[in-house]
């Protein structure tokens, strides 16, 4: 394989207006020669914000039709990564050189004069496996997890890949796939494929909008087949978007599909942690470490909300346990010490309350309320000590 790495930020020129919120330093442009296709292929690459400051390896998202969908895809996906809806990924956009050649399976019914180069999906899969995967693995820190996403004809390619080369990707997103290709052959192929599998540990998402009649019927038939024949361990879902059309559903489909596929990565909500306590936190962390290889620390704002909920509910012991855990994870946060002080004060344990108020005050001397609480409790403690000393003298 002949390769050439171009160290230029191509998006500065091409996508500056549409990607104003994207950190341009996270964008790369690379070029690979495909020995299968006998041509050079440009790749548009986006690395997550943390990429240069960690030693993690990352799962890859392969975004098809990137000459028109890369800007939208990166905008949505980077937002979801930065806000912890999905794990950080390296996004690899693949622009087309001959879309109908690479994205379509072989057919037997279309006139040969229509899209004469069509039917090269198997060859493109071979190019992915032999040329593109090894290239990006060499130049970027990638693990073995891969996601494939496409729309329209590339959505057809996603469904075709799921059926024919299920080993190449872990997750599949197909938006308005052209299921009518070759007289809906792909729909029948899906039924045969699913019935041949007793287990299928993949993720599959398909969306469709206000489609033409033949397209809509094929989509409904596909969903019916999935409902009847999908193995129990196949994680699959679909979204029908009647308010969108065939071309407008891309952004919404991407958000829905990714949200569906990475439910287990999202932080647990406050009520779940209030109920499960510290074990709920540790269970989440074990799951994320096992599934995504990441040591995740829940944000302080979430832990703080749980602490406050427990404290306000009068669950004193549970609140103290959760606060002590939060102190271990975020020892520099003055708020946690203050909340512990409040609980001890409510329990009339003034000496212990003062100790934590003092720490909170020392950690954040800019907080007027911390200072006032520290002074008032200090005064109260002195009064108690003086009263006790007077009683002793009597």
Write the layout of secondary structure elements.
Blueprint: E1 3-6, H1 11-14, E2 27-34, E3 39-46, E4 58-64, H2 66-82, E5 90-94, H3 99-103, H4 121-139, E6 142-151, H5 153-164, E7 171-175, H6 181-195, E8 203-210, H7 213-229, E9 235-245, H8 250-261, H9 270-276, H10 278-292, H11 300-312, H12 316-329, H13 334-346, H14 350-363, H15 368-393
Parallel strand pairs: 4-5, 4-6, 6-7, 7-8, 8-9
Antiparallel strand pairs: 1-2, 2-3, 3-5
Instruction: Give average pLDDT, whole number.
Output: 90
Tell how many strands the DSSP assignment holds: 9
Give the domain tally: 2
Can you count the helices?
A: 15
CATH homologous superfamily grouping of the largest domain: Alpha/Beta hydrolase fold, catalytic domain
Structure, described:
The chain is an alpha/beta fold and 394 residues long. Helices cover 52% and strands 17% of the residues. The chain contains 15 helices and nine strands. Strands 1-2-3-5-4-6-7-8-9 form a nine-stranded mixed beta sheet, sandwiched between helices. A hairpin with a 4-residue loop joins β2 (27-34) and β3 (39-46). α2 (66-82) packs across α8 and α6 runs parallel beside α7 (213-229). The termini are far apart. Keywords: Hydrolase.
Brief write-up:
52% of the residues lie in helices and 17% in strands. It has 394 residues and is of the alpha/beta class. Strand 2 (27-34) and strand 3 form a beta hairpin.
List keywords for this structure.
Serine Threonine Protein Phosphatase 5, Tetratricopeptide repeat; elongated; alpha/beta; 394 residues; Siderophore_Hydrolase_D
């Amino acid at each position: 394989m002949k390769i050439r790495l171009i160290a230029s930020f191509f998006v500065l020129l091409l996508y500056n207006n549409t990607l104003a919120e994207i950190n341009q330093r996270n964008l790369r442009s690379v070029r690979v020669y495909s020995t299968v296709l006998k041509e050079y292929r440009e790749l548009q690459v986006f690395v997550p914000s943390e990429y240069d400051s960690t030693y993690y390896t990352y799962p890859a998202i392969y975004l098809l039709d990137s000459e028109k969908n890369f800007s939208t895809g990166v905008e949505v996906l980077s937002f979801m990564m930065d806000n912890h809806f999905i794990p950080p990924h390296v996004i690899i956009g693949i622009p087309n050189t001959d879309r109908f050649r690479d994205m379509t399976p072989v057919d037997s019914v279309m006139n040969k004069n229509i899209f004469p180069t069509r039917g090269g999906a198997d060859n493109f899969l071979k190019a992915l496996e032999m040329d593109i995967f090894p290239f990006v693995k060499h130049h970027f820190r990638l693990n073995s997890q891969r996601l494939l996403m496409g729309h329209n004809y590339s959505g057809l390619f996603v469904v075709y890949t799921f059926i024919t080369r299920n080993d190449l990707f872990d997750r599949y997103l197909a938006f308005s796939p052209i299921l009518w290709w070759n007289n809906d052959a792909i729909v029948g192929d899906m039924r045969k494929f699913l019935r041949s599998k007793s287990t299928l540990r993949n993720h599959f998402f398909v969306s469709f909008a206000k489609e033409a009649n033949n397209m809509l019927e094929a989509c409904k038939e596909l969903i019916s087949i999935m409902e009847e024949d999908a193995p129990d361990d196949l994680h699959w879902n679909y979204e029908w978007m009647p308010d969108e059309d065939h071309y407008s559903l891309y952004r919404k489909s991407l958000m829905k599909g990714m949200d569906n596929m990475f439910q287990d990565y999202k932080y647990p909500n406050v009520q779940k942690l209030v109920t499960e306590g510290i074990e709920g936190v540790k269970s989440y962390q074990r799951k994320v470490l096992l599934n995504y290889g990441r040591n995740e620390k829940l944000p302080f704002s979430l832990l703080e909300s749980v602490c406050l909920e427990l404290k306000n509910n009068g669950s004193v012991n549970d609140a103290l346990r959760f606060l002590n855990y939060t102190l271990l994870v975020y020892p520099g946060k003055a708020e946690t010490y203050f909340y512990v002080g409040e609980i001890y004060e409510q329990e009339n344990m003034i000496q212990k309350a003062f100790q934590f108020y003092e720490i909170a005050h020392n950690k954040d001397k800019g907080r007027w309320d911390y200072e006032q609480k520290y002074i008032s409790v200090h005064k109260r403690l002195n009064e108690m000590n003086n009263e006790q000393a007077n009683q002793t003298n009597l």
